[in-house]
Design brief:
Elements (H helix, E strand, L loop, with lengths): L1 E8 L3 H12 L4 E5 L12 E2 L1 H10 L1 H8 L5 E3 L1 E5 L5 E5 L8 E3 L2 H10 L6 E5 L3 E7 L2 E6 L4 E9 L6 H7 L8 E10 L10 E7 L3 E8 L5 E8 H6 L4 H11 L11 E2 L4 E6 L8 E2 L2 E3 L15 H21 L4 H28 L3 H26 L2
Parallel strand pairs: 1-2, 1-11, 2-8, 5-13, 11-19
Antiparallel strand pairs: 3-7, 4-7, 5-6, 9-10, 10-11, 12-15, 12-16, 12-17, 13-14, 14-15, 18-19
The chain binds flavin-adenine dinucleotide.
């Protein structure tokens, strides 16, 4: 049996950031993933706010490599279309570089994993966790190949269906606090803005759906559509049919897709935003990223929040090891620190998401407050990003 102080399960952006921070602290650890990298992950491929902040905190050199990566492109504009007449512009000023970066997860997650420490991180990829249980002197992790690891503390960075969240925290997926999305890639999409502006639309069916068009470095385009998982089930909404209808006939969208060719099939996945309602720590474990329900309910940022949670988590791991204390009481500080960083923004975003359900009221309020929102957003973006 392998013995270690720390074992991270999942090497997506949240697990990789935890590992990178631990390595900076010179803390040896294991990091396991069921996939080998590069691997794909269903995502909109848009990086904003916390992704920049986290990359800078991890390493200025890494941030600079990210800015100059040939497969990542940056834009100064995001346009959120509330309806056909009203949009909110999130625009960067002349002196700042970008408000959004488009990076295929296939490339971005590989970029992070490639920068993991050779000295402090022991990588075990292509080897899924099959079982996990708490023993008196550690957490026992059983892997697919039969290997067993006993770790003083374990970090659940294993996404929305986290085995750590299920087995150690006893958390269940909460459909009312989850979004369901479909996503696909197209080529030959025309009439896109030269500025690589992100196009986001609230599309009202029986419920509000969010539609995203994000351009990528290879000339293809990432399309996503989704909404609240519980409401989608309740109203029997078929997201693939809806997204194909939008592309075929929406007056502001269809003309861009006249010659478009779909590159692969539609893929569906969940986005959890239950932070504050589920356990994120307990005896000998902490959860980060999607496993902790940390995506933004309104604009669905999950990569950046996940990375930032990994950095915050590593600070608690360091304190735990120093004090040889892995109890739930000691680790409670982690939840407090997460709440200090994300609490207000996530609560506000959840409120905004609820407000979108009242189509006319939401339209009227955003119409009246458009200038104020745009001004305030600029300040929030500066504070929460780079
Ligand atoms: C359609 C869609 C669009 C989205 N668009 C955006 C966007 O534009 N911008 C944004 O910021 N966020 C977006 N998100 C959210 C974002 O994808 C997630 O929040 C983000 O991937 C969370 O990162 P993570 O590291 O916590 O989890 P993940 O990226 O899911 O990584 C988890 C890792 O754990 C591994 N794993 C899982 N189970 C096991 C196991 N049992 N054993 C070993 N390894 C395991 C997996 O292989 C994976 O590598 C979108 C999500 C969806 C579904």
């Amino acid at each position: 049996m392998i013995k270690t102080d720390v074992c991270i399960i999942g090497a997506g952006p949240s697990g990789a950031s935890t590992s990178l921070t631990l390595s900076k602290m010179k803390i040896p650890h294991y990091i396991i993933d069921k996939s080998t990298f590069p691997r794909d992950k269903t995502c909109g491929d848009g990086l904003i706010l916390y992704a920049y902040k986290a990359l800078r905190l991890l390493d200025e050199g890494l941030f600079s490599k990210f800015l100059n990566h040939p497969k990542f492109i940056h834009s100064k504009n995001i346009k959120l279309h509330i309806n056909s007449k009203l949009s909110i512009n999130f625009k960067e000023s002349e002196d700042r570089n970008m408000v959004i970066t488009y990076a295929k997860r296939y490339d971005f997650d590989y970029f992070l994993v490639n920068n993991l420490s050779k000295k402090y991180a022991s990588l075990d990829f292509g080897n899924g966790v099959k079982n996990i249980s708490e023993l008196k002197d550690g957490v026992l992790i059983k892997l697919k190949d039969g290997k067993e690891i006993l770790s003083k503390i374990v970090i659940g960075a294993d996404g929305v269906n986290s085995i750590v969240a299920r087995k150690l925290a006893g958390n269940k997926i909460q459909k009312n606090l989850t979004s369901t999305f479909v996503n696909g890639y197209f080529k030959n999409v025309i009439n896109l803005p030269k500025t690589n502006e992100a196009e986001i639309r609230i599309i009202y069916k029986k419920i509000p759906l969010f539609f995203y068009i994000f351009p990528l470095a290879d000339g293809s385009v990432n399309i996503s559509l989704g909404g609240n998982a519980k409401l989608i089930l309740k109203h029997n909404i078929n997201l693939v049919e809806e997204v194909e209808t939008i592309i075929r006939s929406h007056p502001k969208v269809a003309y861009k897709f006249i010659n478009a060719i779909k590159i692969d099939s539609w893929r569906g996945w969940s986005i959890p935003y239950n932070f504050g309602k589920n356990k994120v720590y307990g005896n000998r474990f902490m959860l980060v990223g999607d496993a902790a329900g940390l995506t933004n309910p309104f604009y669905k940022e999950g990569v950046g929040t996940g990375m930032m949670s990994g950095i915050i988590c590593a600070q608690s791991i360091e304190a735990s090891l120093k004090n040889n204390n892995f109890s739930a009481i000691f680790l409670a500080t982690y939840a407090k620190n997460l709440n200090n960083e994300f609490g207000r923004l996530l609560k506000f975003s959840r409120l905004m998401l609820k407000a979108t359900q009242f189509k006319f009221l939401f339209g009227a309020i955003t119409y009246l407050l458009k200038n104020k929102i745009e001004l305030k957003a600029t300040k929030v973006i500066k504070r929460k990003s780079y």
